[in-house]
């Protein structure tokens, strides 16, 4: 109880002290106010996450943190985003940040205090708040290792709520994303329950259950300063002596969402549940699957400035080949539009099915096929792809780097796109590929299953080529089926290309479902 009072006092004490308070009009938006057409009261939604494009992105989470708020303002929501102010955010964004205020916050079990700085930036009608503390956020990457990441995100999660109290902007819903924000719902219902922000509801979205922020109980208890009762088996405790920050968030949040319906089912089973399947079955009543979309302004082959030639679904069959030739040229592959080019853009980790690719890549290379990979990650995959490229320089290209412009060129220049994942909560790359008229070849798991309808040669329906069990032979079979249609039934292939480009992969439909959940909760 003493801890609750202390945190409440800290939050109230800091409000209105050193800095001038920002007075924000709802959302500070420049765009036409959609409230004119949608009558419900506008909900205030605070997005909390550890990365957000264009400031910092390491994977799909960064894309979602960027695109979903944009789609939600079109659903009459006032969305603001809170994230860490990492030193590695590019200088051009750092320069645009405005200082809003600062205070000291008690964090650890022994009352150790830390500085909290608040900066603000506005981009395309969305307000972003950045939490500043050089002790935690001055590493080269957002994520380092758990020894550093556990204290970092304990600090961040508590600072988020203290900042909201400080700014006197009390959202209806705090929407948290992944394990790094797992303690926000826990703090909200414990140490901050009696403070102004305590009236907010919370939602936590699982983008990837593989990463949970698991560490021993004493360390998390010390850094979070959370009371002992938050560390029992129904809340944070995991196994004999560990605590899982994600597990705590799932227990305390009012609702849980994940990024596809199939993944929502899968994570309730031991194979996909990463130790939390029974916890998720227990909370299944508040678990919803909503599939991700992509930002169709950023990912738009008609306007994409990274491409040699822009195209739409009307012109794709004439123009896409120019992007293929440009890609082959850039990567030093044989420039030949008759080759079947397979692309892969991915983090290079075991999640992504790369063992299957390595097992059958030799058999892809029949003289008519080229393989292009872009990614970074585990050394074993980086090395194996480098090896393939040096052994077959005319038909395999491996770029071991993070390169946004090249990724756009691969989505446009390849004929097919490979996502053979072991598990895939949603997956954005297959959505982007389809939007660029590049036919996906995917394993039927998670969001891949929900977004890529298998091609049916009898009814001429479907968006791509799929396989079910995690077996290299089945991946090879799917690639051969795709190649057979490409080389022997080009009209049918072209129909798939156009169908994929016309498919709605935008955020609109999913944003509506999130909006419905917000209304349901408030
Ligand atoms: P995950 O979040 O598991 O990494 P997703 O498919 O959800 O996978 O999202 C991956 C996102 O990161 C896509 O936008 C993809 O284009 C991008 N990406 C992944 N690796 C690279 C890379 N090496 N260079 C550029 N973009 C990349």
Description:
- This protein has helices spanning 2-14, 60-73, 91-96, 134-137, 146-167, 183-189, 217-224, 245-252, 261-266, 270-273, 277-282, 316-331, 354-364, 379-391, 404-413, 429-435, 446-451, 472-488, 490-502, 508-521, and strands at residues 43-48, 77-84, 98-106, 113-123, 126-132, 173-177, 201-206, 214-216, 237-238, 242-244, 255-258, 287-289, 340-348, 369-377, 396-399, 416-419, 439-443, 465-467.
- The chain has two domains: 42-293 and 510-521, Glycogen Phosphorylase B (Rossmann fold, 3-Layer(aba) Sandwich), CATH 3.40.50.2000; 316-502, Rossmann fold.
- Helix 13 packs across helix 18.
- The model is unreliable at 1-29 (pLDDT under 50).
- The strands form three sheets. A nine-stranded mixed sheet has the order 3-4-5-2-1-6-7-11-12, with helices on both faces. Strands 15-14-13-16-17-18 form a six-stranded parallel sheet, with helices on both faces.
- It has 522 residues and is an alpha/beta fold.
- The protein has 20 helices and 18 strands.
- Strand 17 (439-443), helix 17 and strand 18 form a beta-alpha-beta unit.
- The structure holds adenosine-5'-diphosphate.
């Amino acid at each position: 109880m003493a801890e609750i009072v202390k945190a409440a006092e800290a939050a109230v004490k800091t409000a209105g002290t050193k800095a001038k308070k920002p007075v924000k009009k709802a959302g500070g938006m420049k765009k036409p106010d959609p409230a004119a057409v949608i009558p419900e009261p506008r909900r205030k939604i605070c997005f909390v996450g550890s990365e957000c494009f264009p400031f910092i992105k390491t994977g799909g989470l960064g894309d979602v943190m960027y695109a979903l708020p944009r789609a939600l303002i079109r659903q009459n929501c006032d969305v603001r985003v809170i994230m860490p102010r990492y030193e590695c955010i590019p200088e051009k964004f750092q320069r645009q940040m405005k200082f809003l205020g600062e205070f000291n916050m008690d964090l650890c079990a022994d009352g150790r205090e830390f500085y909290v700085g608040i900066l603000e930036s506005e981009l395309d009608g969305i307000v972003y708040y950045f939490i500043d503390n050089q002790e935690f956020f001055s590493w080269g990457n957002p994520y380092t290792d758990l020894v550093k990441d556990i204290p970092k995100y304990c600090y961040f999660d508590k600072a988020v709520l203290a900042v909201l109290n400080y700014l006197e902007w009390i959202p209806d819903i705090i929407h948290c994303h992944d394990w790094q924000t797992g303690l926000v719902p826990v703090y909200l219902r414990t140490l901050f329950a009696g403070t102004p922000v305590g009236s907010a509801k919370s939602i936590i979205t699982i983008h990837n259950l593989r990463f949970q922020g698991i560490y021993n109980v004493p360390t998390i208890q010390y850094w979070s300063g959370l009371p002992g009762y938050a560390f029992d088996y129904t809340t944070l405790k995991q196994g004999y002596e560990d605590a899982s920050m994600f597990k705590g968030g799932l227990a305390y949040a009012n609702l849980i969402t994940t990024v596809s319906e199939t993944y929502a089912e899968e994570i309730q089973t031991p194979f996909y549940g990463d130790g939390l399947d029974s916890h998720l079955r227990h909370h299944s009543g508040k678990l919803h699957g909503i599939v991700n979309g992509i930002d169709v302004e950023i990912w738009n082959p008609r306007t994409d400035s990274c491409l040699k030639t822009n195209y739409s679904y009307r012109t794709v069959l004439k123009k896409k080949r120019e992007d293929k030739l440009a890609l082959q040229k850039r990567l030093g592959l044989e420039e030949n539009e008759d080759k079947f080019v397979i692309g892969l853009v991915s983090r290079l980790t075991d999640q992504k099915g790369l063992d299957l690719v390595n097992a059958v890549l030799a058999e892809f290379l029949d003289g008519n096929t080229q393989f292009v990979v872009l990614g970074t990650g585990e050394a074993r995959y980086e090395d194996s792809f480098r090896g393939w490229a040096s052994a077959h320089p005319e038909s395999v290209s491996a770029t071991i780097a993070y390169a946004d412009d090249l990724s756009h060129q691969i989505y446009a220049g390849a004929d097919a796109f490979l996502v053979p994942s072991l598990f895939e909560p949603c997956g954005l790359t297959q959505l982007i590929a389809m939007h660029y008229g590049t036919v996906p070849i995917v394993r039927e798991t998670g969001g891949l299953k929900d977004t890529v309808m298998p091609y049916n040669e009898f009814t001429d329906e479907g968006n791509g080529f799929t396989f079910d069990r995690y077996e290299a032979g089945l991946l090879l079979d799917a690639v051969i089926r795709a190649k057979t249609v490409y080389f022997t039934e080009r009209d049918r292939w072209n129909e798939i290309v156009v169908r994929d480009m016309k498919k709605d992969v935008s955020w609109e439909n999913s944003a509506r479902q999130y909006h419905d959940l917000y209304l349901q909760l408030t």
